[in-house]
Amino acid sequence: MSAGLPFLEVKDLKIHFKTDDGLVRSVDGLSFSLERGRTLGIVGESGSGKSVTSLGIMGLYNKRNAEVSGEIWLDGEDIVSAGEEAVRKLRGDKLSMIFQDPLSAMHPYYTVGKQIMEAYRVHHKASMKVARKHAIDMLGRVGIPQPDRRVDDYPHQFSGGMRQRAMIAMSLINNPQLLIADEPTTALDVTVQAQILDLMHDLQEEFNSALIVITHDLGVVAELADDVLVMYGGKCVEFADATTVFDRPEHPYTWGLLGSMPRMDRPNLDRLVPIPGMPPSMINLPTGCAFHPRCAYEQQTGGLGSTLRPELNRAGGDHLVRCHLPKEERQRIWLQEIKPKLEA
Amino acid sequence: MFTYIIRRLLAAVLLLFIVSAATFAIFFLIPRLVGSTPETLATRYVGRAATPETVNLIAHRLGFYDPVWLQYGRWIKGIFVGADYSFGAGVEHCPAPCFGYSFVTHQPVWPELLDRLPVTLSLAIGASILWLTFGLSTGVVSALRRGSVLDRTAMSFSLAGVSLPIFFTGMVALLLFSYKLGWTAPGGTYTPFTEDPGQWFYALLLPWLVLALQFSAQYARLTRAGMLDTMSEDYIRTARAKGLRERDVDIKHGLRAALTPILTIFGLDFGLLLGGAVLTEQVFSLPGLGKYAVDAITTNDLPKVLGVTLMAAFFVVIANLVVDLLYAVVDPRVRVG
């Protein structure tokens, strides 16, 4: 690793798609960095650009209509400017991904073992026998009982939780340094979700990999993430360590996300406060602040909200917020108006 | 799995009986309803010049005066154990499987069917190899280069291929390649493989191409649609995320999944063809089952028609059975206990 550089550094990443309806700015100037052994949670609604970000890092966007600019430095190598073949060699080896729905993400016609062996053999010159041993070993490590027998099962013979475990085994088979999990628990039963999160946490410690968890579920973030990046309209609107995001968030959108998160420790579940309106169109983002049509505090920006696009400003330490409201005002609103409501 | 196979086999046998009964009824029962008599049937056998006495005698000997169900029973019995026919002088034994004698040539039907089968088999196998090769590869490339010039050209050609009937393409091809250019054999020069493989190939080349053209077009479109479907599946993204080479993603993951429905259709098409590629054989004068069927129908030769119909039904049923069994091999999700 190059000295001084972070393990993963994304600089001004833009991923735009040309469509018949216009240019979709799915990711529009995103920057963040991540070290090995750390976990970054990227949160946002559907269409906020979080999944496209992950596919961008993996080089899995549709090359025919995507325009990608910016830099993605992974361990001293820029993925954006690297050739197709170079990125392919990284994929599944150094950087790897866990998908949302493990049933549709696994090939229905190949056994779980075959699919894991294939992932291993792409990047290693190994016999089927050796690869199979690795696959069984890995299935055991992710908690599949009797892995030497289940290795020959097809995905449809696995339960949902087991499938996600197998998917994790497949993504970890080459000991990746960066693991991206895109909504890893969304398709699973609530009871299984916690197990999978625990498993991911343990494995990350064991492998000392960097982990990006993409989710709309702040519960998952609370469970796993060290840092949190809140995305809205293809941009980062708030970035901070997890404690800060949960204790003193400053962006109205983050407040909205926290308000729409059901919590067992909250006595009144009817106190869920949904964010009004719809996620914006990524083709015609609102002028000014992309969030202003849905923001309850837009009036207090003195008209700036609808005219000027806010910058991502430092709100102290590593806490970044993209909002026109003055810092003192944001802190006041959170402490006096939002927090009491959430804790009522 | 084993009981499943047995169950399917029994169902197949039952189905064949139903088909045989239905065909028999169509040719022996329905004509009676519209005024045909045992004598008219016998006239077909002995010709118009025969005296009424001869006709009457033949009608007796062939059992045309018996109830239809008895005639059907005798026909089925003939297929399983053979039958004895007495024609004037002596008794002629027709060994099982006996499909009776041709009204026109007075030859037993079964050996003729056996004679014709290799022709149809040669035509069907050769053509299917061609169309699978052309159709699948065109479909895959078209799907992967969707919207490209290549895709559009291939799809326009295949639309033409699907739309043009064989009696048109076949005639044009014969005229152009055989009679004008002399590259391929003219119609009616079929030689069995066992006699002269070179001549066999030469005579079948154009029929293969013409028949394959139509099917290639259809299979190219099917494969393209299937590939477009599967290539947008989540597991394709997973395959890419594993770092597989694009070629492996396309073939091992994409085509593998797209092939399953094509296998089904191929099985049925192939089964149908074995019953006789009627148009192709007719256009190129190939002495196969299809041409046999046409000849039998135009000469009102009932035993031949019955025989070739049952044979065609047999192939379709078998092809269905094989496809169902293969499906379980190809798609692990349909494997049943």
CATH superfamily of the largest domain in chain B: MetI-like
The CATH architecture designation of the largest domain in chain B is Orthogonal Bundle
Helix-strand string of chain A: EEEHEEHEHHHHHEHEHEEHHHEEH
**Rg for CA atoms of chain A:** 21 Å
Estimate the helix proportion of chain A, in percent: 25-40%
The proportion of strand residues of chain B reads under 5%
Helix segment tally of chain A:
13
> How large a portion of the residues of chain A is in β-strands, by DSSP E?
15-25%
Radius of gyration computed on alpha carbons of chain B: 25 Å
- Outline the biggest β-sheet of chain B: 2 strands, antiparallel
Strand order of the largest sheet of chain A: 6-7-8-3-9-10-12-11
Point out poorly predicted stretches of chain B.
none
Number of strands of chain A: 12
Tell me the helix content of chain B. Answer: over 70%
Oligomer: heterodimer
From the helix content, strand content and strand pairing of chain A, which structural class follows?
alpha/beta
Strands of chain B, count: 2
Order of helices and strands of chain B: HHHHEEHHHHHHHHH
In a nutshell, what does this entry contain?
The complex is a heterodimer of chains A (344) and B (337). Chain A has 13 helices and 12 strands. Chain A is an alpha/beta fold.
